From TrEMBL:
Enzyme class, spelled out: hydrolase
Keyword Transcription regulation: no
Stated name of the protein: Phospholipase A2
Superkingdom of this protein's organism: Eukaryota
Family stated for the protein in its record: Belongs to the phospholipase A2 family. Group III subfamily.
Alphabetized InterPro entries for the sequence: PLA2-like_dom, PLA2_histidine, PLipase_A2_dom_sf
Keyword Transmembrane helix among record annotations: no
Subcellular location as annotated: Secreted
GO MF entries: metal ion binding; phospholipase A2 activity
Main location, first listed in the record: secreted
EC number: 3.1.1.4
Organism whose genome encodes this protein: Ixodes ricinus (Common tick)
GO biological process, one term: lipid catabolic process
Length: 278
């Protein structure tokens, strides 16, 4: 059975990634759970809604291609549970919202990214008990790095809470997969078309991914970061604007002379990666 189009070279990179990691001294020698250092409760840096009388507040936040269902404690600030939903199409939001039956609060990109980061710190996951890398044919076939369920082409997790044995790395990949602004392979949106074989995400999501992998402090995380940012150098998406001259002066014939400038908005664009992994 042939490997699906576009996956051959990516699978080679996956195998090379794991080979490099295994060749190092110890992969996740500190154990997955210790490296992740999750906490059970965190403070969300957004203004919460008023707490409903006599109970816990549950609400959904929405931005772009991400829905977040969160549950607050009695104080209306302490985040107790979080569940993120990835949307391939923004129209998928409506049935999920109806099924949850909760109030919905639209938020901007920056707020959603902060919330995704805070959700990552919650200890609400269930991880595989085997802490060693498993060379699973099925995971490689799916384009997923063994030992993870979210790192690679898509994911093989049974639920949002389901993580592989490499917990700290998987938490980074899961958060990155839920970036509100992204274009998957051969998809169009934001006035762009992604002709690449991999997803391109908002630059702020890549920045968070870079920092998370560095914080994981493991050989496998470092190798993934090196492949993503240094080898493939995955471009990211952000709004771009350029400076244009609006007044060159009444008598000036010099094209390099400009007395007044303004910014022209170019909208979302693919830009080179803004990070180098070291």
């Amino acid at each position: 059975m042939p490997v699906p189009p576009g996956r051959c070279w990516l699978l080679v990179l996956l195998v090379a990634t794991l080979a490099l990691a295994e060749a190092s001294a110890t992969v996740f020698g500190t154990s997955a759970s210790a490296a992740a250092s999750p906490v059970s409760q965190v403070e969300v840096p957004t203004v919460p809604l008023a707490v409903p009388p006599g109970g816990v507040k549950k609400v959904m936040y929405y931005d772009g291609k991400t829905l977040a269902r969160v549950e607050y404690g009695q104080d209306g600030v302490t985040l107790q549970t979080c569940r993120l939903f990835e949307l391939d199409d923004e129209r998928e939001a409506e049935p999920i919202i109806k099924a949850q039956g909760l109030p919905v609060q639209p938020v901007d990109l920056a707020t959603m990214l902060r919330l995704i980061s805070q959700c990552r710190e919650l200890r609400d996951w269930t991880a595989s008990t085997n802490s060693t890398l498993q060379w699973s044919a099925s995971s490689l076939w799916s384009g997923i790095i063994p030992g993870t369920k979210w790192c690679g082409l898509g994911d093989i997790a049974s639920s949002y809470e389901d993580l592989g044995s490499q917990v700290a790395v998987d938490l980074c990949c899961r958060a990155h997969d839920h970036c509100p602004v992204k274009l998957k392979a051969f998809r169009s949106g934001y006035g762009l078309v992604n002709f690449s074989l991999y997803t391109k995400s908002h630059c702020d999501c890549d920045r968070d991914f870079h920092g998370c992998l560095r914080g994981a402090k493991s050989n496998i995380a470092d190798t993934i970061g090196n492949v993503y940012f240094n080898v493939i150098k995955v471009p990211c998406i952000r709004k771009v604007r350029k400076a244009v001259c609006t007044d060159r002066g009444r008598y000036s014939r010099n094209e390099n002379n400009c007395e007044a400038w303004a910014y022209q908005e170019l909208g979302m664009q693919f830009v080179p990666t803004e990070h180098h992994y070291e």
